[in-house]
Specification:
The complex is a heterodimer of chains A (about 160) and B (about 140). Chain A is an alpha+beta fold. Helix content of chain A is about 30%, strand content about 25%. Classes of the chains: A alpha+beta (about 160), B alpha/beta (about 140).
């Protein structure tokens, strides 16, 4: 059971449009958006297991939170709101992606989102092309998204 | 009719979203309570009266399903209206939840979905209220 990059992109775009009210687009070859600097991961177990990861440029974090909350600006310090918003978007993305992949019947258990900084030492590279791993890059004004799905090898 | 609403979700963003949706949808909320997991919610329920719970499923410490089971086992809370708000997509699991008398809202959701379901659930008097308005005029006040 795998997901194509096109499926990842479709689900990501759907979630961003409906939850964050932004439409990410396919990368523009001429643009050079900031690299992915923060990512959230959600592990899942079920008929198949793995992890869904959503990485974004740090500059997008405030926008995620503000848009989800319908605010123009934060009343006070934003704190970790952007990171929390990223985790929640990843959680919703994972649940919806699994339904798209497996259909409406299978039951999956999702873990709690884990948010981490992407080390600078992870240089800008092409998306890995390894079995069980699917990834896609998208862009929003001001930054980049990377959505990936890594499936555990069947036990 | 004003409601005491408890939202249980480990995401502070989602809790704030639901609070805002309740505000803009015209649902009259007297007290809005928040909890970051099922355990916090149970502790809050020991101290506060609520008319409605909105709860996520996947949370640390104590998830939504366990929290719901414990609420249902408490005679004082057993018939408390509960809406599960989750990215859960398994129809098997959703059917199980609904068979237990729970309502379900799938993330991502439209604000009017939340409003309409609350009106449908609590169109009459809030849980435990002695003023039993059935449907009609009560729903208009939400």
């Amino acid at each position: 059971m795998e997901a194509s990059p096109e499926m990842l992109a479709e689900v990501a775009q759907e979630i961003f449009e409906n939850l964050v009210f932004i439409s990410p687009q396919s990368p523009d070859e001429e643009s050079e958006p900031a690299r992915v600097q923060v990512r959230a991961s959600v592990h899942f177990d079920g008929p198949f297991s793995g992890v869904v990861t959503l990485g974004v440029s740090e500059s997008l974090l405030p926008e995620l939170a503000l848009n989800m909350l319908g605010l123009e600006e934060f009343p006070g310090e934003p704190g970790r709101k952007g990171l929390d918003a990223l985790g929640e978007v990843t959680n919703v993305l994972c649940g919806n992606l699994l339904a798209r992949m497996a259909g409406p019947e299978p039951v999956f258990d999702l873990g709690v989102p884990k948010v981490e900084t992407v080390p600078e030492t992870e240089a800008e590279t092409d998306l890995p092309d390894v079995p069980g791993h699917t990834a896609v890059r998208l862009e929003m004004e001001g930054g980049r998204l990377e959505v990936s799905l890594s499936l555990d090898a069947p036990s | 009719m004003s409601l005491n609403v408890l939202v249980v979700d480990d995401s502070s963003t989602m809790r704030a979203m639901l609070r805002k949706i309740l505000q803009i949808s015209g649902v009259m909320v007297e007290n809005f309570y928040e909890a970051g997991n099922g355990q916090e919610a149970l502790e809050l329920l020991e101290a506060q009266w609520v008319d409605l719970i909105l709860v996520d499923l996947n949370m640390p410490v104590m998830g939504g399903l366990e929290m719901i089971e414990r609420v249902r086992c408490n005679p004082d809370l057993a018939d408390l209206p509960i809406i599960v708000v989750s990215s859960e997509s398994s129809q098997t699991r959703i059917t199980d939840l609904e068979a237990k008398g729970l309502k379900f809202i799938h993330k991502p959701f439209r604000p009017e979905t939340v409003r309409d379901l609350i009106v449908q659930l609590l169109g009459g008097a809030p849980h435990g209220s002695e003023s039993g308005n059935a449907g009609g005029s009560g729903a208009g006040n939400l």
